[in-house]
Design a protein that fits this description.
Elements: E1 5-7, E2 14-18, H1 31-38, H2 44-52, E3 56-58, E4 61-62, E5 74-78, E6 96-99, E7 103-108, H3 125-133, E8 157-163, H4 166-177, E9 182-190, E10 197-201, E11 204-206, E12 214-216, E13 224-233, E14 237-244, H5 251-258, E15 283-291, E16 298-302, H6 307-317
Parallel strand pairs: 8-15
Antiparallel strand pairs: 1-2, 2-5, 3-4, 3-5, 6-7, 7-8, 9-14, 9-15, 10-13, 11-12, 13-14, 15-16
Length: 318
């Protein structure tokens, strides 16, 4: 572990980076440039602020932004507790698929963040459901994620469940943990398949260098995706259906990229040059099935493909 980007799980406000082996390419590089690349979850201005405040040290000594790293240097970054975000209800239109006293199923549009975070304190799904549900939201996930049981990426469209009370939230949270939920996604990916269906069973963990990415890692958590080819498209693209057995961050995107079928539009795990103008990956959470947390009745909901997705399909079918 002496050459990794370490973020101690018991102390999330302290990060250590040791400049050797894996990071030897940063020897002779300015520390501000190094941190801007390795810690891209923080802005350059925020890194500069931490440095000015003495929160970033090299070998236990404060350094300036122009300090050039040496072999074996140990960088320690102390990240202060984040300021509490004030989350306000916002009158944002919601595409509500189903609602009762316990749960809410919404069809999330492309580009909407699920819950507030630094840089996204407004315009999120949470802001919208706070306005719609008023005080009828579970409190289990605190003020930043009231009612949120699971998430889908900002640029992924489709079905997402919200729980309106703590009882429903606990029941549904347990169902997600034991994978007792039917979640089916539709995607367009690169390349035609040899086998029309298959399973990717590869563990996933946070990327050791780029903390915004996930990666296949033997030390990660088990992740299983079942895929099926729906249609072969022109220009060597495929329309596929993916059923999640587990629900890890970026699971479908990482798994499909790992077998040489990255999703169209995915600039993180796929080619940088896109043949179509898209905002992120072409991925849609189209089916959500589960037993109701209170009544026990099995319910299943479907959301049609969004317009942008169908437009791409039409072009690839021609």
């Amino acid at each position: 572990m002496n050459n990794q980007y370490i973020n101690d799980e018991d102390s999330l406000d302290s990060i250590n980076i040791q400049i050797k082996e894996e990071y030897s390419g940063y020897i002779g590089v300015r520390i501000d440039k190094c941190l801007a690349e390795l810690m891209n979850e923080f802005s350059r201005s925020y890194i500069a602020k931490l440095m000015e405040e003495g929160q970033i040290t090299v070998n236990s000594k404060a350094v300036k932004a122009n300090y050039k790293l040496r072999d074996g240097d140990n960088i320690e970054i102390i990240v202060p507790e984040p300021e509490e975000l004030e989350i306000l209800p916002e009158n944002i239109p919601l595409d509500i698929v189903y609602e009762d006293d316990d749960i809410l199923i919404v069809n999330k549009p492309k580009g909407m963040v699920v819950h507030p975070a630094p840089g996204h304190s407004s315009g999120t799904l949470v802001n919208a459901i706070m306005y719609h549900c008023k005080d009828s939201l579970s409190t289990i996930n605190g003020v930043l994620r009231p009612g949120i049981v699971h998430r889908i990426d900002m640029d992924t469209t489709g079905l997402l469940m919200v729980c309106k009370n703590d009882v429903a939230h606990r029941v549904m949270s347990d169902k997600f943990k034991v994978h007792d939920i039917n979640r089916v996604y539709t995607a367009i990916c690169y390349n035609h398949f040899t086998d029309v269906e298959g399973t990717v069973d590869k563990p996933i963990a946070r990327h050791k260098v780029d903390r915004k990415k996930m990666s296949i890692d033997s030390n990660g958590r088990r992740a299983v995706t079942h895929y099926k080819v729906i249609e072969e498209l022109s220009n060597n693209f495929s329309l596929i259906e993916c059923r999640l057995e587990t629900g890890r961050t970026h699971q479908i995107r990482v798994h499909m990229a790992s077998i040489n079928h990255p999703l169209l539009g995915d600039e993180v795990y796929g080619p940088k040059n896109k043949p179509f103008k898209t905002e992120g990956q072409v991925l849609h959470a189209g089916v959500l099935g589960f037993e109701h947390p209170i009544t026990g009745e099995y319910m299943e909901f479907k959301a049609e493909l969004p317009e942008y997705f169908n437009n791409i399909l039409e072009r690839l079918r021609k």
